[in-house]
Amino acid sequence: MSAIREGTYGLLAEFDSPGDLVRAAQAAYDSGYRRMDCYTPYPVEEAAEAIGFHRDEVSLVCLIGGLLGVAAMFGLETWISVWAYPLNIAGRPYYSWPAFIVPAYEWTILWSGLSAFFGLFALCGLPEPYHPLFNAPNFRGGATSDKFFLCLEATDPKFEVAQSRAFLESFQPVSVVEVEY
């Protein structure tokens, strides 16, 4: 494996149709490339499946946030009712958990929503005001309108500039551009 030039982010191949992109992405995944991404102007589910993208960690973050919310509210209500400010009203017990259900439910919803929102931002790496692909001249003009892109990243163990370029060019893309940092 030859050394990757300093400052190289990867190779970006441009395609005219989503079918060509999906075929190239599937072949790249089958060839052993794992650090790659597809960029399309609209969702192409087949492309996500082709590059092996199967993660859904936001739902786990949301579940953990909800469980923390219900535990935090039950803990707060228990601490207030039993230790911090106990009130003996009509002989009712200090720890009356049925009265705690509605506020605990509300905190479950609140913490689930907040953890989903902030968890999505964190898992997506946002905010990211700059990405190296913005340096590619053809990416800025077509990524959001009518072009489909496959980027093989230089951090992939299989990546080697000449071999990866030849691999991408075998799919007859519109262009293959080396992306700099």
Question: How do the strands and helices of this protein lay out in sequence?
Answer:
Layout (H helix, E strand, L loop, with lengths): L7 E8 L2 H14 L4 E4 L5 H6 L7 H27 L16 H23 L13 H6 L5 E6 L7 H9 L5 E6 L1
Antiparallel strand pairs: 1-3, 1-4, 2-3
Count of folded domains? 2
| Large-scale geometry | rod-shaped
Q: Oligomeric form of this entry?
A: single chain
- Major sheet description: 4 strands, antiparallel
- Computed over alpha carbons, the radius of gyration is 25 Å
Number of DSSP helical runs: 6
Strand-residue proportion = 5-15%
Number of DSSP strands?
4
Question: What is the typical, i.e. mean, pLDDT?
Answer: 90
Secondary structural class: alpha+beta
Low-confidence blocks of residues: none
What's the CATH topology label of the largest domain? Alpha-Beta Plaits
CATH class of the largest domain: Alpha Beta
State the order of secondary-structure elements, H for helix, E for strand.
EHEHHHHEHE
Distance between the termini: 21 Å
Q: Percent helix among the residues?
A: 40-55%
Output the strand order for the largest sheet.
Answer: 2-3-1-4
CATH architecture label of the largest domain: 2-Layer Sandwich
